[in-house]
């Protein structure tokens, strides 16, 4: 009788121990799962940002710099050319546009600007009441080597009081990474920029 009671106690103890081990292991697994999901949720939340545009909050997602290199590089080159080559017959407007473009490039752009200025290009724009616009057709970026080589294909339109001139424009250079700033949001700097083709395609009378 006593032997049977001892056997029952031993069996009960083993069952309790087994149940306790299962509970502890289950609690540990549950804790690990909760921690993992918490970190995943925090990471997803931090990757989500809101951009205020025209008074509206737009949802966006942060991503790694390397994932956006082609898109950002192309937009940087496009923005530079639009600022540098979009000119109105207004000295203040020209200086403002050129000044903003020079934040995006090195001394090679400043040299090109000085050469145009010395050749009275901007004075002729103002005195001739000429509006110059540019349409960037495509930008090629080689991201397989650094600094990144680029070539920009664009079309210029010069609207004069008596004619409209369509001009081809092809430029090239390379892009180097720099610190992002208010004046350079993409974090690139154009180097060794040069024009390799800029000829008239057509002239139409107005």
Q: What's the helix and strand layout?
A:
Elements: H1 2-47, E1 48-53, E2 56-61, H2 69-85, H3 91-102, H4 107-118, H5 121-127, E3 131-142, E4 148-159, E5 163-177, E6 188-197, E7 200-205
Helix pairs in contact: 2-3
Structure description:
It contains 5 helices and 7 strands, in the order αββααααβββββ. With 206 residues, the chain is α+β, with helices and mostly antiparallel strands. It has 2 domains: 2-49; 65-205, Roll (Nuclear Transport Factor 2, Chain: A). The strands form 2 sheets. Strands 3, 4, 5, 6 and 7 form a 5-stranded antiparallel β-sheet that branches. Strands 1-2 form a two-stranded antiparallel sheet. The chain starts with a helix and ends with a strand. The mean pLDDT is 84.
Summarize this structure briefly:
With 206 residues, the chain is an alpha+beta fold. The chain has helices at 2-47, 69-85, 91-102, 107-118, 121-127, and strands at 48-53, 56-61, 131-142, 148-159, 163-177, 188-197, 200-205.
Global morphology: rod-shaped
Percent of residues in helices comes to 40-55%
Regarding quaternary structure, what we see is single chain
The run of helices and strands is HEEHHHHEEEEE
The secondary-structure class comes to alpha+beta
The overall number of domains is 2
Percent of residues in beta strands: 25-35%
CATH class value of the largest domain: Alpha Beta
Radius of gyration: 32 Å
Comma- or semicolon-separated keywords:
206 residues, alpha+beta, Nuclear Transport Factor 2, Chain: A, five-stranded antiparallel beta sheet, 2 domains, 7 strands, two-stranded antiparallel ribbon
């Amino acid at each position: 009788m006593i032997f049977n009671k001892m056997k029952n106690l031993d069996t009960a103890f083993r069952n309790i121990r087994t149940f306790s081990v299962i509970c502890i292991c289950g609690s540990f697994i549950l804790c690990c799962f909760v921690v993992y999901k918490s970190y995943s949720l925090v990471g997803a939340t931090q990757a989500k940002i809101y951009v205020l545009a025209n008074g509206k909050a737009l949802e966006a997602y942060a991503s790694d710099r390397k994932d956006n290199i082609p898109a950002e590089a192309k937009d940087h080159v496009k923005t530079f050319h639009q600022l540098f080559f979009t000119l109105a017959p207004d000295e203040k407007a020209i200086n403002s546009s050129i000044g903003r473009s020079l934040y995006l490039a090195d001394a090679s752009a400043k040299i090109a600007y000085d050469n145009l200025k010395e050749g009275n290009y901007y004075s002729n724009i103002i005195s001739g009441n000429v509006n110059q616009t540019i349409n960037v057709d495509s930008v090629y970026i080689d991201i397989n080597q650094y600094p990144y080589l680029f070539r920009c294909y664009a079309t210029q339109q010069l609207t004069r009081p008596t004619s409209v001139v369509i001009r081809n424009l092809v430029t090239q250079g390379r892009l180097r990474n720099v610190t992002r700033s208010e004046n350079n949001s993409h974090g690139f700097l154009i180097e060794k920029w040069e024009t390799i083709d800029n000829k008239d395609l057509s002239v139409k009378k107005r």
